Amino acid sequence: MAAAGGLRSAGWRLWRGRAVVRCQQYPPLRALQASAALRRASDEHRKEPLGSSTQQHFDSPPDGHQPEQKPQGPHPSYTGQGGQESEDYESEEQLQHRILTAALEFVPEHGWTAEAIAEGAKTLGLSVAAAGLFHSDGSELILHFVSECNTKLSELLRKEQKLVQLGEAEKKPLDEFLRDAVEARLRMLIPYIEKWPQALSVLLLPRNIPSSLNLLTSMIDDIWHYAGDQSTDFNWYTRRAVLTGIYNTTELVMMQDSSPGFEDTWRFLENRVADAMTMSNTASQVQSTGEAVVQGLMGAAVTIKNLAGLNQRR
Amino acid sequence: MAAAAALRCSLLLLRAGARAAPGGGSLRLSSGRAARGDINKPVIDRILRVDHAGEFGANRIYAGQMAVLGRSSVGPLIQQMWNQEKDHLKKFNELMVAYRVRPTVLLPFWNVAGFVLGAGSALLGKKGAMACTVAVEESISEHYNNQIRTLIEEDPEKYKELLQVIKQFRDDEQEHHDIGLEHDAEAAPAYSVLKTAIQLGCKVAIFLSERI
Predict the structure, then answer these.
(1) Is residue A196 part of a domain?
(2) Burial of B207 (0-12, 13-18, 19+ CB in 10 A)
(3) Do A144 and B108 touch (CB under 8 A)?
(4) Do A260 and A144 have their domain in common?
């Protein structure tokens, strides 16, 4: 009863406080209070303890700096001194993580919006006000999704590499490896393909660009790492730039693709990777030709100097 | 809002390569690319990037000097120092790959600038070349010393291998510096001006390579 009251007031505070939030610092106190309030409310309604994870520590230093806030309520679920107490306790970040993961299944229906997040929160037994923890344009949801996909891709590539190391699989030639990696990553978009253009436009918002760019570059770096790239010169940049181009263009083609099983997209991808291979072959051919030409010219110069008698030391 | 703020702040931390970054400097939205255990990635990134750039530049400086003075009496000496620098570069290439460090984007620029510096100083004569060597090696030794201090402050045990490598290289560079002095570097034309200018250039190069 009192908890419900606490939730209502927390909800009001959320709705009013949203406009006032400035994202200049670490998880604001208010959000921590809100999640605490939400969690208390959820404790009332749910049977099993919050979170199967039994992690009992703060994830990040800033959380630790926040004084533990416990709005008045009859059922405190932790004793607020640094997180070692109740088994139900989880950090702000973990809570957000779980809400976003749960929200993903509602994306095909609601799009990358606060509705999807609210639905996700509902399945966890939290109040729909939990959507207030996030931006209304679904940025965090999309970034969370991208991050999850990247992690899955890394896992996949790592497993493949292990198989090759154990000798249970053949090492793929470079173009096939790149093609498969990009295809695997793009396939993760398929369940959400209807709403993905919306997500792309949100990712391009100035506010989100640092994060989305970071995610993109680290994914591409991962792919090259597992492809066996060991360059430490400017090639490092060239290769990543080329692969980023391939990935982005293929992603865009995929948005427009209506062929069965996205065959057009995979064929496009194959052609782009082949182009890149040709380009690099051509580049190295040009370089070796250039070197040969220079050698030839040097030889010619020396010959002429000899003929003219200029090469004798006096 | 909260998550976006957290994201941005953790990204800023990562980019600034803050020495105070928490162990592992983990990015919240990571694609899982920790190369090794729980090293302080931003700090190691910087160290390896700038060292790699430094050895690369040193290589090009000696190449420039050899191009001009290769057939003179100091030729063999410069060649010998150049060979040591080549070894250093090879070692850093390996470390870069092992720690998955991004090389500096200014490499093509250091390529040209190093060669020009080497050739230019050699055109001032053998003493000029030696003066350049002294200036650069002194700069690099000091820089390696700073890095050794940083790593020891962090955790000498965790970075034992890296510390060993840097100490070894610091000793080599010091040796080059002494060789330069032995060969009348100080008698070079406008020695102090040359030395100051080159060391200033090195400082700028180090600053930029750490970041870009």
Answers:
(1) yes
(2) exposed
(3) no
(4) yes
Determine the distance in angstroms separating the CA of B132 from the nearest CA of chain A, rounded to an integer. 25
pTM of the model: 0.72
Is A255 among the domain residues?
Answer: yes
The H-or-E segment that residue A20 falls in is none
A193-199 contact pairs (CB < 8 A, 24+):
A193/A254, A193/A255, A194/A108, A195/A107, A195/A108, A195/A111, A195/A112, A196/A255, A197/A255, A198/A111, A198/A112, A199/A112, A199/A138, A199/A142, A199/A145
Pair A132, A151 in one domain: no
Alpha-carbon distance of A126 to A35, in angstroms, equals: 9
Within 13 Å of residue A217, how many CA atoms lie on the same side as its CB? 11
**Contact assignment for B1 to A215 by CB distance below 8 Å:** no
Across the interface, of A21, A230, A233, the residue whose CB is closest to B1 is A21
Reported as a single tens digit per residue, the pLDDT across A104-140 is 999 999 999 888 999 999 998 888 888 888 888 889 9
- Residue A275 sits in the same domain as residue A170: yes
Neighbours of B117 (CB within 10 A): 22
**C-alpha distance from B172 to closest chain A C-alpha (Å):** 23
Q: Within this chain, do residues A149 and A224 fall inside the same structural domain, yes or no?
A: yes
| The two structure tokens encoding residue A276 | 């890149």
> Quick one: A132 and A201 in the same domain?
no
Range of the domain at A128: 91-136
Contact flag B97-A230 (C-beta cutoff 8 Å)? yes
Q: Do B31 and A27 touch (CB under 8 A)?
A: no
Helix (H, G, I), strand (E, B) or coil at A41: helix
In the predicted structure, residue A14 carries a pLDDT above the cut 70: no
Partner-chain contact B4 A135, CB within 8 Å: yes
Residues A221 and A128 in one domain: no
Averaged over B133-138, what is the pLDDT? Answer: 94
Specify whether A132 is located in the same domain as A147: no
Domain for residue A251, yes or no? yes
Query: Which chain B residue is nearest to residue A207, measuring alpha carbons?
Result: B4
Instruction: Report residue A27's pLDDT band, with 50, 70 and 90 as the boundaries.
Output: very low
- The closest alpha carbon to A210, from B6, B31, B8, belongs to B8
Asked if residue B107 has pLDDT above 50, the reply is yes
Residues of chain A positioned with their CB less than 8 A from the CB of B92: 232
Of A24, A61, A150, the CB nearest to B5: A24
Number of domains in chain A: 2
Tell me if A31 sits within 8 A of A103, measured CB to CB. Answer: no
Q: How far apart are CA A101 and CA A264, in angstroms?
A: 30
Residue in this structure with the two tokens 């001194």, named with its chain if needed? A81
| Predicted ipTM of the assembly | 0.78
Give the Cα separation of A33 and A40 in Å (integer). Answer: 10
Distance in angstroms (rounded) separating the CA atoms of residues A238 and A236: 6
| A231 and A274 co-located in one domain | yes
**Contact yes or no for A232 and B5 at CB 8 A:** no
